[in-house]
Structure formats: C-alpha cells, structure tokens
Design a protein that fits this description.
About 25% of the residues are buried. Helices cover about 5% and strands about 40% of the residues. It has about 550 residues and is mainly beta. The strands form 12 sheets. Strands 9, 10, 12, 13 and 14 form a 5-stranded antiparallel β-sheet that branches. Strands 28-35-34-30-31 form a 5-stranded mixed β-sheet, with no helix packed on it. Strands 37, 38, 40, 43 and 44 form a 5-stranded antiparallel β-sheet that branches. It is elongated and about 95 Å long. It has 4 domains: about 40-240, Immunoglobulin-like (Sandwich), CATH 2.60.40.1220; about 250-340, Immunoglobulin-like, CATH 2.60.40; about 350-450, Immunoglobulin-like; about 455-550, Immunoglobulin-like. The model is unreliable at about 1-30 (pLDDT under 50).
Length: about 550
C-alpha cells in the first residue's frame, strides 16, 4: 500500500488527538472529600479593634475563596450609616469602603451574618463582628448567651434611649443584629454603656422590624440588659417556640341530611369548647351540636336537630376567640349547600384496622377506640360488639365519646402478648342514615405487646432559687409529650409514670401560674420567664427511680 504525504499528515494529527483524549480519559476523577469546614476570617486591615478610625477602605481576608452571590446580603454596618457602603469582592478578600464623615467617639461594627459562604457553599460557623472606633477607646461591652430553637436563629438588639423605646422598640429595625451558631450560641461585642432590649427571631426575619402576629420570636427574662463600660453579660438565654398563628375557618362541607363539618387552618382541640357555631338558613338561626374529629383535630363536625331538604343554602358563622389582646381564632363565615343526594356507600370502621396493636399498661387499662365513617345512634344492642380472646368473650364497658367515636374498656386488664378479635354485628348497630356495614359480621384482629414499663424521676434543688418553680421533663423524640410538676416547699419534686427513654430537664420560674413556659410578648411588653436546662441527659428506665439531688441553678434572674 502506498501512503501519500497528505494521508500521513492527517494520520499523524488524528493519532495525536486520540492520544490526548485517551490520556485525559485515564485521569483520576476530580474532587475529593466534601468540604465541610466553614470559612474563617484570617485578618483585617486595619486590625479588628483599631481606634482613631477615620473611615476609608477596610480589607477582610478569609481562609477560603468566597461565593460571590453570598457577599452583599451578608454584610451590615452597625449602627447604620445614612448611605449604603461600597463593597468589593475578589477571591478570598472583601473590601468595605467607609465614608470619611463618621460620628465622633463612635464604635462602628462590620457585622457579617451566616449568609456568607465559601465557594463550596459552606456558610460561616457563626456571625462575625469587626469593630473600629473613631475615638480613643473602643467599646468593650458584651452580651452572650444561648437560644433554644430547632431552626437557624438571629438575635436583635435595641438600645433604649427614651421612654418610647420601652414600648415601641420592636416596630423599628434593630440597632444590632447577629447570628447564632448551630448550637444556638451568640455574642454581641463592642457595645457601649447603656440599656438594651434583646430578642431572638427565626433567621428568616433577621434585621426586620417585628410583626408579632406573623413572626416567630422569643424574649429574655431580663426586662432590660444594663451594660456598664467594658462589662460582659453572660448567660442571657432565650427560648423560641413556633407561635400559634391565628386560626382561620377555611371551608365547610355538607355530608348528609343534618350533618356537616368545618375545616380550620390549624389544630382547634384547645378551643373546641369555646367555639360557638351558628347555622343560618333563610332568616332562621340554627344552633347545631358540635364535636371535634379526634382523628383530624383541624375538623369540627356539626349536626342539626332535624334533617334539611335538599339544595338548602346554609351560611355558617363563628365569632372570634381571643386571649387578652391576642386573637386565637378569627371570626369566619362559610357557605355550604345541603345536597338532596344521600350517601349510598357502606359504613366503614376507620380505626382500628386488622393488625392493630395495643400497648397495655400494668397499672391502668388502656381503652380501645373505635371510629366510624358515619355518625351513629348512641344506643347499641348488647350483642352488637364482641371482644374475644380465642373463643372466650371479654367483658367491657362501652361509651360513646362522639357520634363517630365509641370507646370500649375491658373490665379486666389486657393480657400482654396476646391476640384478640373485635367482632361487630351489622344488624345490631345503627348509623343515623345510609347503609350499615357491607359484611354481616365484621371481624378485626388486634394484638397486645408486652406491658409498657415506666420509671420515676425524683429531684431536689439547692437554694437560692426564684419561686414558684416548675420542673418539666421533655422527651427528645416528642417534645409535645412533656410532663411537669411543681417544686414543693422542701425544694423537692417528683415526676411519675414516665416512659422509658431519654429526656432533658427544664426548670422554670412559673410567674403567671399557668404551668406552661411563657416566652414573653412585645405588646403589651412582658419578659419571658426565667429558665434553665440541666446540661446532662436524663435517662429513664422501666421500673426504676431516677434520683437527681443537689441541683444547682445558675444565672438566676
């Protein structure tokens, strides 16, 4: 075969391209261990804490390259200046340009929040504060503490300069803002002498004036935090909880004949007995019977004394429910149309289903709750429901808790690790309307576990301490299942019948006497209640008494 010069050149070029490609293909994949180290400030020019600061350019150098789109939203000057600062960024360096006309004898703080991220998206570990004084001394006041909240949190600080600041402070932007770290620890540095008010907020509200009805916040138990020159105030702790928003009536639904239900925006179980429902038909006002849906506590059922003709138009109203100046449930109005079509589906047992498991207790009989899909007549035939262990009938007490909810309590305690049958006879139970069960005999298999064990917590607190005190045991897995007791006059407390598990122990000063911790409120202003979490985890074991003696309380109000 004869190779031409042109062919040889093309072959050489092609071989070179393939060689380069193959070399690239066998290289190790890029990357490595994921970067999880937060960026840190390496140095500042002028240095942090400099005095006789005349303005001009400040250079901040970090340990890693920064994410450009995170820079501008992360920087705030405190106290604020009339004009926004010019901020430049390149690589690991930020430049902040101050004006030349700064106030005399004032400490200015460059506050950098946790929006600042490195090039891999890792945010600052905690907010930074770099301070410069225009006079001969830099302010050295500090406020430190911890915020207990399960989401990212920011701290707002206002300086109290007048009487109006005591009541209207939250309506203005805070004088100082900083972010807490992942554990909730925070610090304000370089504060001047004076009086301050402090607040913790969900980080989504950082730097904003407060809307008490819409924003989540918590206050300190300190009405005013007073700082003297160079003073450090530690242990100014706070708690933040998801504040209940105003509950609203969303819609209504007509189910059949004289039965309907109302849907709310949140759980109404605390306020069910306070709700007043009016049904308006034409010019008549009807007062229905209401009951909470125990399987969905955002739903309230209502029944009218008599069935309504089909295609009736109903207006349903509720008045507002308030606690002091706070609205809990807003007034509402919905319209429904009573349909002439009746529900032709079969009655169903919503709960329990086959395989339902009961967790029995040795010192009390756990009831079995039966929920129906349609409202029932509150009288049942003696042979309507049977509870069997194999073929042996188990005696029980039946009780209707609502037209949808029948509870049965065995006369003798459940046998642990056993199987039972719940048998319901179609012809012996009666819904108010519509079909009964599809099967003549409905059988549901249920079982029991071992007896659930419980332990006790016994404690004693060393004096001095504020009175009255409440001790609250909060489980790690379900904070809503907390248990509490009052510390007695001998400085002792006992919390009994505690499920096995891990807990934190909260002690708080129950000033308002409602036995629930008060997080404080801004309008009218009321500080939070003093509290302290014990640092150690409390482990409760079955059939054991856990004793904690000589509990010493610190950072008392």
């Amino acid at each position: 075969m004869i190779l031409t010069k042109e062919y040889t050149i093309k072959h050489f070029i092609l071989s070179g391209i393939l060689f380069i490609y193959s070399c690239a293909a066998i290289q190790a994949p890029p990357g490595g261990p994921k970067d999880i180290i937060p960026p840190e400030l390496v140095h500042a020019v002028p240095t942090n804490g400099s005095i006789y600061f005349k303005g001009g350019r400040v250079e901040l150098v970090f340990s890693e390259y920064l994410q450009e789109n995170s820079v501008h939203n992360a920087i705030r000057i405190q106290p604020s200046l009339p004009e926004p600062l010019e901020i430049e960024y390149k690589g690991r360096t930020l430049w902040v340009d101050f004006p030349d006309s700064l106030a005399e004898n004032q400490t200015y703080i460059i506050s950098i929040n946790r929006d600042l991220r490195d090039e891999h998206g890792v945010q600052l570990g905690q907010g930074l504060q770099i301070a410069y004084a225009t006079g001969s001394e830099i302010d050295r006041g500090e406020i430190n503490g911890k915020v207990y909240y399960d989401k990212p949190v920011a701290l707002h600080l206002w300086m109290v300069n007048s009487e109006s600041d005591l009541t209207q402070f939250y309506k203005t932007s805070p004088d100082y803002v900083t972010d807490a770290d992942n554990e909730g620890n925070y610090s304000f540095y370089h504060l001047s002498s004076g009086s301050y008010r402090l607040m913790g907020v969900d980080r989504s509200s950082a730097g904003l004036s407060l809307d008490p009805e819409r924003m989540i916040y918590g206050l300190s138990w300190k009405n005013i935090v007073q700082l003297d020159s160079n003073q450090v105030r530690d242990g100014i702790n706070m708690r933040i909880a998801e504040r209940p928003r105003i509950i609203k009536l969303i819609r209504g639904e007509w189910l059949d004949r004289n039965w309907g239900k109302l849907f709310f925006s949140d759980n109404i179980s605390k306020y069910e007995k306070l709700l007043s429902v009016h049904v308006i038909k034409d010019s008549s006002i009807l007062i229905p019977t209401t009951f909470l849906d125990m399987l969905d506590k955002e739903v309230l059922h209502f029944t009218l004394p008599d069935s309504l003709p089909g295609d009736s138009r109903l207006t349903i109203t509720i008045p507002a429910i308030s606690q002091g100046e706070r609205t809990l449930i807003d007034s509402g109005r919905v319209t429904v149309r009573a349909s002439s079509e009746s529900d032709t589906s079969y009655l169903d047992i919503i709960n329990p289903k086959n395989g339902f498991e009961i967790k029995p207790e040795e010192d009390r009989i756990v009831p079995l709750d039966i929920f129906f899909s349609r409202i029932m007549k509150d009288s049942i035939n003696e042979d309507a429901i049977h509870l069997l262990s194999d073929t042996i009938a188990i005696s029980f007490f039946p009780q209707w808790l609502s037209p949808l909810h029948l509870q049965i309590v065995p006369k003798e305690n459940w046998i642990p690790r056993s199987k039972f049958s719940l048998v319901i006879m179609r012809d012996r139970i009666s819904p108010f309307f519509g079909r009964s069960l599809q099967d003549s005999i409905k059988t549901i298999q249920i079982s029991t576990t071992n007896f659930i064990g419980f332990g006790n917590l016994i404690g004693r607190i060393e004096k001095p301490y504020p009175q009255p005190l409440v001790a609250e045991l909060v489980p790690f897995e379900n904070e809503q299942s907390k248990q509490w007791t009052v510390v007695n006059s001998n400085s002792e407390f006992e919390i009994s019948h505690v499920s096995e598990g891990k807990y934190s122990l909260l002690i708080f000063n129950d000033l308002d006497g409602i036995r629930n911790y008060s997080y404080g409120q801004v309008d009218p202003f009321r500080p939070a209640e003093w509290f302290q979490f014990l640092p150690d985890t409390i482990t409760i074991r079955n059939n054991w008494d856990m004793e904690i003696t000589d509990i010493r309380l610190e950072q008392l109000p």
